[in-house]
Specification:
By secondary structure, this protein is mostly helical. Helices cover 80% and strands 0% of the residues. This is YqzD.
Length: 121
Amino acid sequence: MKVMNVEIAIIALLIVSIALIAFSYFQREPIKEVEQELETLQLSAMQEIYKLKKKMTVLEEELLDSNVVVRRPNAGISQHIAKQILSKYQNGMSEEAIAKAEHVSVEDVKAIIKDNERVLV
């Protein structure tokens, strides 16, 4: 009789465990909902940051356009070339490489960079 009671207890525990597993499977997980909300929030924040960076780039370009000073305008350096020189310098290009790319002298490149130090900061 003890063996039968033990068997009944094991079967009852097995049924209860299956029922609990089924219940937990169908139970809504609040953690998943929170994770999904967090992911949505992260995506929207990243989109906003991207938009702000684009706006900052446009504003910086406008500011750069208005503040560029071309030293020695009679040397044949146009505003457009001066802007390109400053842009390349800000992107980490060396003065010699800029001079070669823009077909101007290294001294002219250095002069434009020196005259526009306050814009480059």
